[in-house]
Write a structure and sequence with these properties.
Layout (H helix, E strand, L loop, with lengths): L4 E7 L2 E6 L27 E3 H8 L3 H9 L6 E5 L1 H11 L6 E10 L2 H11 L4 E8 L5 E7 L2 H4 L2 E7 L13 H4 L3 E5 L5 H5 L1 H10 L3 E5 L4 H6 L19 E5 H8 L4 H10 L4 E6 L2 E7 L8 E5 L3 H7 L10 H19 L6 H14 L15 H17 L2
Parallel strand pairs: 1-5, 1-9, 2-7, 3-8, 5-6, 9-10, 10-11, 11-12
Antiparallel strand pairs: 2-4, 7-8, 12-13, 13-14
Bound molecules: adenosine-5'-triphosphate and magnesium ion.
């Protein structure tokens, strides 16, 4: 049996600030609504970045939100971000004697930063180098109008990178790379880390780490040139240093500039990624492995959990926020457990099975993060779905 596995993660950790019952037809919101596509104003169903939004309306974000909400506070605050959410899930799904999950990141010295600090402390993730800087805490403001679109409801989003601007590759010191697995999650929302990803991945590999990258929609690249594929690090060389890449379909297509998942896999493969998983909401996932990291090689499809799909038809409380992040966390947890057993190269199908039930389970509750009453709680709830899933795929 291998020694305790150290997983170190850097990337996007933010607060989701939900404002419910915002009337998208109200007078107060009109100056902030988009008039032309891409002008920086708010559009139902779409996300804008703080900088473009402020430029458009000429009002600082806090004041704009005050005007829109009538001065009230958010109704709900949640931990979000593909790095934090996936690491929390990975830590919850592994035994503390087997694994330590560490997070490195930046927040702001404001109420939201204080919330993140205390909320993260309620999870098994170890805050290794999490500091608060003078900028605002990274956030996504979610404005929700449940009666919009004839009562179907719709949301509008404003994302602030804020203090994530203060996290730079130099902050990730030897301690970070002294790990078994390093995970870069949603770094498109941590610009300096994202821009230095090739060197960071290369360094991780030369330190003998396993490297995992899970992506997020890259609003900045999309905004700067929607016709160009999204860059990842200094160059495409990043891919050859990635042992496992996890992206949803939309992200995979935008990273590669391709128009279907198979072509995207071919692109990643040509760029020498070791393995890749492409998720697609309730549709099958697509995996490819070159056989250098995982035991098996080749292209495979796997269905999502039928049992979860069925149960979701009856459940009303949850939402799909954080499915992808929990999927990644489940895959990482399985990697840890397989490495800990030390029985040779990990099995991709086993890792994906845990990812699939973890991503699916996240549909049962609001937000991406589940706060456990006691260690092992979430694992004991997900395990029956894993067992059903094994039966489902064995025929
Ligand atoms: N409706 C669903 N029913 C069952 N499983 C689901 C459903 N939606 C998502 N999942 C599970 O979660 C995984 C990841 O979902 P998805 O591809 O939507 O990720 P994502 O787009 O990254 O989501 P997000 O960014 O909101 O976290 C899927 O592969 C699947 O296993
Ligand atoms: Mg995602």
């Amino acid at each position: 049996m291998a020694a305790k596995i150290i997983v170190s993660g850097a990337g996007c950790c933010l607060v989701d600030l939900l404002y419910n019952n915002i009337d998208f037809h109200s007078k107060a919101i009109q100056p902030f609504l988009s008039k032309r596509r891409g002008d920086g104003g708010l559009t139902p169903g779409m996300l804008v970045l703080q900088e473009e939004f402020e430029k458009y309306c000429g009002t600082p974000l806090d004041q704009a939100v005050k005007k829109i909400s009538g001065g009230r506070k958010h109704d709900k605050i949640n931990i979000g971000g593909p790095s934090a959410v996936s690491l929390i899930h990975a830590a919850q799904m592994t035994d503390r004697d087997d694994c330590e999950v560490r997070f490195y990141g930046r927040g702001g010295s404001d109420d939201e930063g204080a919330y993140l600090f205390s909320a993260l402390r309620k999870t098994p993730v170890v805050l290794r180098d999490y500091r608060l800087t003078d900028r605002r805490t990274p956030s996504t403001v979610v404005l929700s109008d449940p009666s919009f679109n004839d009562g179907h409801g719709e949301r509008m989003f404003i994302n602030s990178i804020g203090a994530a601007w203060d996290h730079s590759p130099d902050d990730l010191n030897a301690d970070f790379f002294n790990s078994d697995i390093v995970v870069f999650g949603g770094t498109a929302l941590v610009p300096r880390i994202n821009d230095g990803l090739t060197s960071l991945l290369k360094k991780a590999k030369s330190n003998g780490c396993i490297t995992v990258v899970n992506t997020v929609f890259d609003f900045r690249s999309e905004k700067s040139d929607p016709s160009k594929r999204w860059p990842i690090g200094e160059s495409d060389e990043s891919y050859r240093y990635i042992d496992l890449l996890i992206a949803d379909r939309e992200e995979a297509l935008r990273l590669t500039g391709e128009s279907d998942s198979l072509s995207a896999v071919r692109f990643f493969r040509n760029k020498k990624v070791s393995s890749v998983i492409i998720t697609n909401g309730p549709e099958n996932i697509l995996t490819w492995s070159g056989g250098s990291f995982f035991s098996s090689a080749g292209l495979k499809e796997m269905p999502v959990s039928q049992r979860i799909k069925e149960e979701l038809k009856k459940v009303r409380e949850g939402d799909t926020t954080g499915c992808g992040d929990n999927f990644a966390g489940g895959v990482i947890a399985s990697l840890v457990n397989q490495l800990r057993k030390g029985a040779g190269p990990p099995d991709l199908r086993e890792a994906c099975s845990w990812g699939i039930v973890s991503g699916g389970f996240a549909c049962f509750y609001m937000g991406g993060t589940w706060f456990e009453e006691e260690p092992g709680e979430k694992l004991s709830m997900i395990k029956p779905y894993y067992e059903s899933y094994l039966k489902q795929i064995s025929g």
